[in-house]
Queue: 4 jobs
Job 1
Amino acid sequence: MAIVMGLDQHRAQITADWLNTETGEVSRARVTPAHRDRVRQFVGRFAGQDLEVALEATTGWRFVVEELQAIGADVHLAEPAETSTLRGSKKRAKTDRADARHCASSTPSTPSPRRLRASCVPTGAAASPAAGP
């Protein structure tokens, strides 16, 4: 993978942390407000690149996934409770940047059997991955 990215998303903003695996360069950004047009503008810079993105399936994840898939990104959704468990106990206060970095560092290279592939989520599915049978 050329770029591996983790997103920590909230209603007001999205924190992104990514690694260029070819150069080793680590970058981060904050997308505010967390609206479709701002997300489209942000992800547009990665169009045509080999991009793998992980994010928790929290409020508003659908439009973010749609915009990422529109540029050809390989998107992974994680169950928020599972992500919290995998992260383990915290020695410091939780930060959006730490959450984004955790998603970027753990999802692409260590597949989880509970992880959902965004492309496999039915269009009519509930917004929460925990909903339904």
Job 2
Amino acid sequence: MSSSTFGGNWCGDCQLLDIYYRQNPNAELLTKNFVLVHVNIGHMDKNVDVAKKYNVPINKGVPALAVIDANGKLLYSERAKEFEHTTPEAVTAFLNRWKPVHNAASVKKS
């Protein structure tokens, strides 16, 4: 599972989101459940094709997030600037919502 964050190093909210990613429990959730991909959009002039491919409306502002499964299928794309002025708790809730479900019943014991 991939969590892709679209943004730029000039973006204060992007920098704050990155700080929240590094704090627990978010750091642990990311490590165990996701491959975090930072997509640099420059000044809205880089990797625009990647944002378009995953329906991420960077023209509405950044940071903007997408969740992509292991097969490249888009599971979630931010629409309404949900992570502008976010909180660590909101990031935790997001990660918990989109982390893969590990079904213990489907794991074979040997």
Job 3
Amino acid sequence: MSCTTARACTGTRSPRLLRGTNYADVGWEYDPATGRAVLLSAIDNLGKGAAGSAVQSMNLMCGLPEEAGLRFGGMFP
């Protein structure tokens, strides 16, 4: 599927910001004490899980834009 639903974010994000969305947020922090980058990701399992995939597949089968019905901004501003 080709619609972009991943967003790169600096720093950490609150998982509640993704509630009700079809987005996957990926963030990172550099830890100078260890010299490592810590990568974090968060999804809303309902939107990004099987339900979101089913809507994307239905859109493709019906000739609709792939992201139709999936661009909801979420339940938190």
Job 4
Amino acid sequence: MIVHPRSARNFARAMMQRSKTDRLDARVLREYAARMPFEPWHPPSPQALHLMAIAHRLQALTRMITAEKNRLHAASLSAPYPLWFAMTWHAAFKAWNAL
């Protein structure tokens, strides 16, 4: 049986057990196992794992987009000219130097 530590701690508090020794912990865990129903853990299905991977990737991409938008905004505020002007000027300068 696997017990979540917070669940065991809350169970001990409900039993008015505030002290923390190995002997008391063992007694509380024995009582927890006797009173609580056992639910076996099942690993997630391959479809669920795939869905979680997609969700994590979507979250990472959303964070990256937000970071890039923030960088663009910061660059537009700190530049003496608007960013589109600097990009256009740079492209024109490169084209002129190519001649």
